[in-house]
TrEMBL record:
Gene3D superfamilies: Survival protein SurE-like phosphatase/nucleotidase (3.40.1210.10). InterPro entries: SurE, SurE-like_Pase/nucleotidase, SurE-like_sf. One of its GO terms (cellular component) is cytoplasm. Residues 3-194 form the Survival protein SurE-like phosphatase/nucleotidase domain. Its EC number is 3.1.3.5. It is an enzyme of class 3 (hydrolase). This is 5'-nucleotidase SurE. It comes from Sulfitobacter albidus. Keywords: Cytoplasm, Hydrolase, Metal-binding, Nucleotide-binding. It is found in: Cytoplasm. HAMAP family: SurE.
């Protein structure tokens, strides 16, 4: 198997090294793992692409490239430049430092890479490690992802694929904020919404009198509805959420007959 890996935390992020180990296991001794990842951290950029300016790509070593762009840029660069004659069988994104569950999914560059991979027609999985008091001070806070990452990917890849209106399926995996030995299992889960949790701004006045705003996040311990992604993560389970890039509110369409002329 030939696997492309990327992330949004940057080429030197520890989570990318974790993902390389997962990918090496999945690819097997006769496989290949290609890394095409951002030169700098790109957290929160979503599905952004460098549409109005060129993107610099640098080969660091065979099958390992650094891109001055977003995670989605990395996927595009990989598919149409270094891997143009050696297309991947699978694209993995992560392992993100922090969860990409609930509303975080909408901002995530980790997810953005998978959206682009799915639009390009490739099977793809996003992997993220929830942080919390039970794992952030471990020698390796990614140990749940290390221990269970390859297995959960194999289980996902064994599931039947599906298409809807041309939008391919992709998968969002979040490892719970616990030690590897305390992971309770895997749960297929709907994307949740943490009630009352939103990004916000925090103001700071500089010594020169200029005003700056920092973007602040919300409380990641607030659980959404039972059985949804962040809720099962906080219960110690790995969440697996099937997704598509189709943003249509399908449940509302049947009530809109009065709009039709």
């Amino acid at each position: 198997m030939r696997i492309l890996i990327t992330n949004d935390d940057g080429i030197n992020a520890p989570g990318l090294a974790v993902l390389k180990g997962i990918a090496d296991t999945l690819a097997g001794p006769d496989g290949e793992v290609w890394t095409v990842a951002p030169a700098f951290e790109q957290s929160g950029v979503g599905h952004c692409i460098n549409y109005t300016k060129p993107t610099l790509i640098t080969e660091l070593e065979p099958r390992r490239y650094m891109v001055e762009g977003s995670p989605a840029d990395c996927v595009l660069c990989a598919l149409y430049d270094p891997m143009a004659e050696a297309k991947p069988d699978l694209i993995l994104s992560g392992v993100n430092r922090g969860n990409n569950a609930a509303e975080n999914t909408l901002y995530s560059g980790t997810i953005g890479a998978c959206i682009e991979a799915a639009l390009q027609g490739y099977p793809t999985i996003a992997l993220s490690q929830f942080y919390g008091p039970d794992n952030r001070d471990l020698d390796d806070p990614f140990e749940a992802a290390v221990a269970h990452g390859a297995d959960v990917c194999r289980r996902i890849l064994a599931q039947p694929g599906a298409e809807a209106h041309g939008y391919s399926l992709f998968w969002n995996v979040n490892f719970p904020p616990v030690a590897a030995k305390d992971v309770r299992g895997i749960r297929a889960a709907h994307q949740g919404r943490r009630p009352g949790v939103n990004f916000h701004t925090v103001a700071q006045d500089a010594p020169n009198g200029r005003r700056f705003l920092w973007i602040g996040g919300g409380d990641q311990r607030v659980p959404p509805a039972p059985g949804t992604d962040a809720a099962v993560n906080l219960d110690g389970y790995i969440s697996v959420t099937p997704m598509r890039a189709d943003l249509t509110a399908a449940d509302v369409l049947p009530s809109l007959d009065s709009l039709n002329t």
